[in-house]
Amino acid sequence: KEEAEVLIWQFAKYKALAVALNPIALLDVLGGFMTDLVMIRSLAKLYGLPITQHETRQLWQAIAKSTGALLLSELGTGLLLGTSKSAAAVWSLFDSTAGFSAFISAMAAQAGASGYGTYVIGKAAQVYLEQGCTWGPNGVKAVMQDILSQIDSESTVARLRKDLEARLMTSSLKS
Length: 175
Prior knowledge:
Layout: H1 2-21, H2 25-46, H3 53-66, H4 68-91, H5 96-130, H6 139-150, H7 153-174
Helix pairs in contact: 1-2, 1-5, 1-7, 2-3, 2-4, 2-5, 3-4, 4-5, 5-6, 5-7
């Protein structure tokens, strides 16, 4: 279970970093979806369960449907902030201070939302796989409500942002 938690957190951090560094809005969303699918397959492998690409997509869809508001929010935020981030990146070519500041703000917000969404998806996949590829007697919605009630979104996003800032600072110091 601890290995799964580490794996989920790694994917959430990597997705947040990838989203933060990618200035093209639509690629953020597509890349995020792919990250979630790879994470689900990696979790299945960790638990020694064979899972096909089709089953992975079905599991992702079941989670997405049951957490529709969260994932729609992530998608909407991703597209909105991604567009803002793209515009800020272009603007920074003309006004480096204001554009860069807007870019960083949009980047941090979008990265946090994306990483949080991946963390929730990972926790849901973990429960599903630990229970032998079933949601249990109460179904996916009950599992998702339980997961969402246990996760403190603010502290999770804050932790993601802190990790992201540390990684970006380390990268910029090496440059």
